[in-house]
Structure formats: structure tokens, C-alpha cells
């Protein structure tokens, strides 16, 4: 088995569990947050810095790398790990989400999707077989099946079609998968409809994937709706396989996802808001770019032990951001990744100690106060 999963401790009062994801490139403790390296780089950070922050598993992006620099070039470079200088495990998404959200769509047919590149408008075709072939060329440790993510809101009929197509495509991905050193995870769709989620789970469990992504959430629906979908979807998934909630990364959603039995998360949010001058603190988000912090000589988060908080003030980092100095966004990125990765470590420790619910409530009480 390329990827296997062991549960170390289950929480008595919630669905939370602490586990270990075993990969050929090392073990990953769960629940885990995967920093996103869209273009084969976690923006502004070197792989060594990402590793020193405690990240073990990162995500990279099939759609982006297929368009630029191209999967063949990365294969020629010796695969994605060697190309980007990251020796730990990598998960690649299938490109489905970007094809449906970023590219201008030409045509969806049962065989695949015609789309235009968001970079130069050139026309491309992605099918389940193509998505698998590109991910095999990249050589990621975990590949994702090509899925159709329906937008929110959309009609029931549209959600049903996307769900059924995702199931047909999942089978084709599994049949196309060749690499024995790469695990392929299926993706559950179904929008916000319970019967469609149930159908999607049933179809995908029949294909016996080593792990399952929960897709089609965090696409604009209210958080309560997302939690409700998780409440009825996660219990249908096999307990001994990892569950990955795709595209979720705000601290409150991570806690609520873990409480509902999710093991893996990824999101561009921590790094994206960092580049816009927003940082996480234990008391909620802080827009350090704002004038209010011009003479604030405290760290970004006084309780944070990251390099940025140990050495620099809000006033200095704000100055760097205002002056468009690249160190500014490096420091905010470093802090935000540290914050999220430390949160995941604390969540895991609390699960192991039997105090997850108290930890979650205490964290959210402060987080939501402002
Ligand atoms: Zn910090």
C-alpha cells in the first residue's frame, strides 16, 4: 500500500481523531493542514522554511503546473519533488476545481472538459485519464481523482449531474492509474443535498479508494451549511481511511472540521491573506497594514513564538508592507503558516490528552470575541 492510515486516538465526545498517514516519503501526523504550493512553491517561502515551520505534507496544483511550465518539463526535471526541492510527501489536486472555477469553460462533455487557459486563452482538454497522466508525470505521492465541482448556489439538477459525472470519472481515473508509488484518492461531491452526498459516497466507496476528499464545500455557502453537510457525510465514510476536506483553512473551520472527523485540510487562505497584510492572532484576524498599527511596537501576535513575532513589531512589518518590501509578505506568510501549523499540533495534542472539546471552545471563545 502506497499510503496507509493508522488511528492513534479517537475523541470520546466528538468525531475528532488523531492519526498517522504513512507515505513512502515519511509519516504525517493528523489532523494535518497542507500549505498550498500552487505553482510548485509555497509563495515566498523556501522549502527549508516550510519544513522548519513543521509542515510535512504540501499540496501542489495540477492545473497550474500543466499550463506552466508543463508536466513533461517537470517529468524531465526528475519529478515535482526534485524540481521544487521538497523531499517530503506532496498531494496534487486533480485540476478539476481550477478548470471549473478559473479557466473560461468551453464545453463539458462526458468524456472531459474543453477549457481556455486563464494565462493566455489557449484551448485545452482535460479528461479523467489526462488528469491522472499529468499527476503521474508530476510524481506526487497522493493524486486526486478528476471531479466536477458544482458552483454554489446551483440548481438541484446541476448538482445531480455534476455528482453523477464525478462518480463516472472516478471509475475512469482508477482504471487509468498506473503508478504504484502514487495513491489515488476519490472525491465526494453532492453540493448541499443530502441524497446526492449519500449517492456520491456510495458510488465512491464501491471503488475502494485509499482515502476520500470531500469536495464542493467552501465554495461560497454559509459555514453552518458546510458543517451540516459534514455532519451527515463524514459518518458515511470508512473510519479507517483518511478524510480530506478540500479548500478549508480558517482556524474556526479547521476546528469544526476536526470535530466532525476530518483528518486533512488545505487552503490558500493563510498565505493569501498574508500577502494582503492580514495576519491571524489568538484574538482573531488583524489587518497589520492598517494605519492603526503604524506606532504599534508589539509583535503581530504577542503570544506567538514564530521568527517574525520574536524579532519584529507590527509597526515595522506594516512599514515593509507599505513600502512594498518583499520581506513584509515573507514575514506575514511565515507567521500565518506557523499559526495554522501550531494550531493543528495543539489540536492533535488535545485529542491525545482527551481535552479537544475544551481546547476548541477556549480557542473559539477568544477567536470570535472581536
Ligand atoms: Zn508569529
From TrEMBL:
A Pfam family matched in the record: TGT
Species per Swiss-Prot/TrEMBL record: Desulfofundulus australicus DSM 11792
GO CC entries: cytosol
Broad class of enzyme this protein falls into: transferase
Reaction(s) this enzyme catalyzes, per UniProt: 7-aminomethyl-7-carbaguanine + guanosine(34) in tRNA = 7-aminomethyl-7-carbaguanosine(34) in tRNA + guanine
SUPFAM superfamilies: tRNA-guanine transglycosylase
Cited PANTHER family: QUEUINE TRNA-RIBOSYLTRANSFERASE
Domain of life according to the entry: Bacteria
Pathway(s) the chain acts in: tRNA modification; tRNA-queuosine biosynthesis
Stored Gene3D superfamilies: Queuine tRNA-ribosyltransferase-like
Residue ranges annotated for the tRNA-guanine(15) transglycosylase-like domain, each copy included: 15-368
Protein's UniProt keywords contain Protein biosynthesis: no
Binding annotation for Zn(2+): 304, 306, 309, 335
Protein's name in the database: Queuine tRNA-ribosyltransferase
Cofactor binding comment, as recorded: Binds 1 zinc ion per subunit.
GO biological process, one term: tRNA queuosine(34) biosynthetic process
Ligand binding (substrate): 93-97, 147, 189, 216
Entries under NCBIfam families matching the protein: Q_tRNA_tgt, tgt_general
Database matches in HAMAP family: Q_tRNA_Tgt (MF_00168)
Amino acid at each position: 500500500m502506497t499510503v496507509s492510515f493508522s488511528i492513534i486516538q479517537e475523541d470520546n465526545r466528538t468525531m475528532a481523531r488523531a492519526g498517522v498517514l504513512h507515505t513512502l516519503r515519511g509519516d504525517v501526523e493528523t489532523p494535518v493542514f497542507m500549505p498550498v504550493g500552487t505553482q510548485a512553491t509555497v509563495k515566498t517561502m523556501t522549502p527549508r522554511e516550510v519544513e522548519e515551520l513543521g509542515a510535512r505534507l504540501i499540496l501542489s496544483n495540477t492545473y497550474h503546473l500543466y499550463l506552466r511550465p508543463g508536466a513533461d518539463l517537470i517529468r524531465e526535471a526528475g519529478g515535482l519533488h526534485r524540481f521544487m526541492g521538497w523531499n517530503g510527501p506532496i498531494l496534487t489536486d486533480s485540476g478539476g476545481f481550477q478548470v471549473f472555477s478559473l479557466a473560461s469553460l468551453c464545453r463539458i462533455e462526458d468524456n472531459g472538459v474543453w477549457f481556455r487557459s486563464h494565462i493566455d486563452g489557449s484551448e485545452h482538454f482535460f479528461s479523467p485519464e489526462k488528469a491522472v497522466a499529468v499527476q503521474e508525470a508530476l510524481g506526487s505521492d497522493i493524486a486526486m481523482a478528476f471531479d466536477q465541482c458544482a458552483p454554489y448556489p446551483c440548481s438541484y439538477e446541476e448538482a445531480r449531474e455534476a455528482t453523477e459525472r464525478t462518480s463516472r470519472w472516478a471509475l475512469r481515473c482508477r482504471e487509468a492509474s498506473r503508478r504504484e508509488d502514487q495513491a489515488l484518492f476519490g472525491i465526494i461531491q453532492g453540493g448541499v443535498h443530502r441524497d446526492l452526498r449519500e449517492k456520491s459516497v456510495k458510488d465512491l466507496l464501491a471503488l475502494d479508494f485509499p482515502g476520500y476528499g470531500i469536495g464542493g464545500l467552501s465554495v461560497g455557502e454559509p459555514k453552518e451549511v458546510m458543517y451540516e453537510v459534514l455532519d451527515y457525510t463524514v459518518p458515511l465514510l470508512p473510519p479507517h481511511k483518511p478524510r480530506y476536506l478540500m479548500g478549508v483553512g480558517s482556524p474556526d473551520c479547521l476546528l469544526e472540521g476536526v470535530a466532525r472527523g476530518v483528518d486533512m485540510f488545505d487552503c490558500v487562505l493563510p498565505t493569501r491573506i498574508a500577502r494582503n497584510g492580514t495576519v491571524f492572532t489568538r484574538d482573531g484576524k488583524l489587518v497589520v497594514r492598517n494605519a492603526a498599527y503604524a506606532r504599534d511596537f508589539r509583535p503581530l501576535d504577542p503570544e506567538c513564538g514564530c521568527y517574525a513575532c520574536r524579532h519584529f513589531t507590527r509597526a515595522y512589518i506594516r512599514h515593509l508592507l507599505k513600502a512594498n518590501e518583499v520581506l513584509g509578505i515573507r514575514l506575514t506568510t511565515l507567521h500565518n503558516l506557523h499559526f495554522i501549523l501550531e494550531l493543528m499540533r495543539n489540536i492533535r495534542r488535545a485529542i491525545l490528552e482527551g481535552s479537544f472539546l475544551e481546547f476548541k471552545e477556549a480557542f473559539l471563545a477568544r477567536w470570535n470575541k472581536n
